[in-house]
Each structure stands twice: as structure tokens, then as C-alpha cells.
Amino acid sequence: MNTNEPQDDLSTDAGLDVQRDIIRQSLDAIINEIGMAMRDVSLTFPVYITVRNSGDALVTIATSHDPSDEQWQHATEIVCRTIEERIGCRRLQGRELACAIANEGTINAADVTAA
How is the chain split into domains, by residue range? Predict the structure, then answer.
């Protein structure tokens, strides 16, 4: 997620670092708030958040499920809104990133319980 306003004082590297620190310090509270907001609108897939160390993005979000584009857009809006409120910025935006999974295989409950 990037800040949408490059002219904003917090768009500098130091400002982004401050925002990332705020997110890191309250990551558990942020993810709990996101989870509750998603459940309130019947989005039940997991969302993972990792805080970036550099670049123009604050966080990267992902899911291990394959929600519809509409569901993912809604989840992304919830994540952005929650983080915006926490760090006090005006508007975050998401952008798609290429992603792949190595050694992905299907796993079912029988595979887990058999071990």
C-alpha cells in the first residue's frame, strides 16, 4: 500500500519509516480490527500483512485463498481504511503484485490428522 499523496510530509523515507514503526507496534491490534471488520461483512478468508522495510509501500497484504475480485477489493479497502486510521494518513492505495507459491499442494483434513 502506498500513500496516494507524494507531496505529503510523511511521503519521505523518514516519514514512511515512522508510519511503518506505528504499524509494527500495533500490528496485532490492526489485524484484529481488520478481522472483525471482515467478519462483519461476511469475508471469512485470511489476510496476511507484512510491514515493508524499504520502498514506497508501507505493507504487503496477501491471502492463501482465492477470493473473487470483488471480495478481495472489499478486503483491501478494509485494510487500507484501518491502517489509514491508525497512522493518520489521508488515503492509501493498493496495487497488484505478481505472486507465486512454491511446493503448493492440496492438503485436506485427513492429511493433517494422519500425521
Answer: 2-114
